Amino acid sequence: MALRTAAKRWLPGAVVDALAEARRRVSWLRRPLPPQEPFPQVRAVTARLLVGPTNSAGQGWAWARAAERAGDDVAAACFAIRRNSYGFADDYGVPVPVYAHPAWQRAHEQYVLGTFTHAVVESMRPLFGARHARDASGDIAVLTEAGLRVALAFHGSDLRLPSRHAEREPWSPFRVRDDLTARLEEQARRHAAFATEFVAGGGAVLVSTPDLFDDLPDATWLPVVVDPDRWQAPPSPGRRRPVVVHAPSNSRLKGTEAVEAAMQALSAQGVVEYRRLEGVPNDRMPDALAEADIVVDQLTMGLYGVGACEAMAAGRTVVSYVGTAVRERVRERTGLDVPIAEATPDDLADVVAALAADPDAAGELAARGPGFVRAVHDGTVSGTVLDDWLRQTTR
Hints:
By secondary structure, this protein is of the alpha/beta class. The chain has helices at residues 2-10, 13-29, 59-70, 96-99, 102-115, 137-145, 162-168, 179-200, 228-231, 251-254, 256-268, 285-290, 306-313, 324-334, 348-357, 359-376, 380-393, and strands at 47-52, 74-81, 92-94, 118-122, 149-154, 204-207, 220-221, 243-246, 273-276, 294-296, 317-320, 341-342.
């Protein structure tokens, strides 16, 4: 401890940090590397694409499959850091203790550089752990130096600037200035600065939701992907007292407090039956949505994402705060209207009560959902976006 204190006093901060990192790596190397699955074989085709490492809501895996369907000369793999038990599919992955081990990091780097021609790096998270930097900037330099073509992909809070969102959206959760808001603000500013420079240098930046154009106007929309057949469900039975479901992946960002208050009031009045879904594994969610008539997604963000697309694919009436800007951007790019009933914390109870009282109108809206998802979010559009990028950058 005395030596560390002296080092901090007399040595430059960068040297102290380097010594600390070296000490950490030596400590890790003394630990045995846990058992792990082998790296997958990838077909020897023109474009070999790696997507990872966050696989947020299973999108890394879905985008990899979309890229393969779009081009016969494309092979793709999704790598994921396996942090939770939701059970999203990937092609290979490791738990955090393996991801943090220097021996695995070195082996993974050798595998990636010797296997792939392209990489889509999600959320500025490094593919090789902390081997080169705490974010993906060091990995991107290594990948580029080795001749791989790199694109960046962002899912939401990894790029969305809380202060800008709070100015734009009246119900923004980021109007509460706390540690989470401050942490996301710092992260978003850092990621946006890197992404802006990356685009200026000719790189591609992909965003999964159209609201993120406010944070990076030069990005390309890579729509979220869901499998319509997996989520297909029998038509809602049109109950006199419809079942309303809310499945918050993040209660604060979804506006769950306002959802609960409004739905519990309607439930007490006998207007709806309310169910909150939490901790449901991904393989059980289709059955859970099939039991619903109405799905309330979120009330604060001004967007729609994977959860709303799954509910639309199931033919359920979806209620959410999408916002005018996102609706217009989707219409401009697809020619289609987003079939989601608009609601805010102020009028959610009224919107749901009106849908409950008019099952024909609710059913008409729900019936448009599967077609919209097949047109925009079944992977065809996303596959085309990725295929265009791959063909532009294939050596």
